[in-house]
Design brief:
Blueprint (H helix, E strand, L loop, with lengths): L2 H53 L7 H52 L4 H39 L20
């Protein structure tokens, strides 16, 4: 295999692996943001529920019943948070397995392509690489933007970023024919 063909194959493979890694990172970031959001939601609901029970002047709610209701709410929220933790850990494990399988497949295909010694096959590989490399690079750029978006979502969920309303210029009305 010529040096040019090997280089073309490796460029395409590296771009594909970079894309897989970007999607892996972004997906794990979104799963983490989901987990954090669930925790915030449950903790906020528990706080509001506890405050309501403290303020409620219902005759059937004596101090013992209030305490029992608040404790039951805390146990229920703890259970839901544990389930969210366990489920998101499983999802992250699956995401990692998919990424490992994908990169392993790319590496295996790359090593097999590099062993081809036929001039006709090399010409075909060079042609396909020239056509596919720009598309693969575009896919990698899209994946990198997906990572940026996922990190923005994570920052919003964590309360680290102010949500600014996007303003777009108003569209002009079409003129009637």
């Amino acid at each position: 295999m010529t040096t040019q063909a090997v280089s073309a194959i490796e460029n395409l493979a590296n771009t594909a692996i970079r894309t897989v890694e970007s999607y892996n990172t972004a997906n794990k970031t979104l799963v983490g943001a989901y987990r954090t959001g669930v925790q915030r939601l449950l903790n906020g609901a528990a706080t509001r529920y506890g405050a309501y029970l403290e303020q409620a002047k219902l005759p059937v709610l004596n101090e013992q019943i209030r305490t029992q209701l608040i404790d039951a709410q805390k146990k229920f929220n703890g259970f839901l948070i544990q389930r969210a933790e366990a489920d998101t850990k499983n999802v992250i494990a699956v995401i990692d397995r998919i990424a490992v399988a994908s990169t392993s497949g790319i590496d295996a295909a790359t090593s097999r392509l590099e062993k081809i010694d036929s001039p006709a096959a090399q010409a075909f590989i060079n042609g396909v690489s020239k056509l596919q490399l720009p598309i693969a690079q575009l896919s990698a750029q899209v994946a990198e933007q997906y990572v940026v978006g996922a990190k923005r979502v994570e920052a919003r969920v964590n309360g680290q970023e102010e949500v600014a309303a996007e303003t777009r210029p108003a569209r002009r009305a079409r003129k009637a024919d």
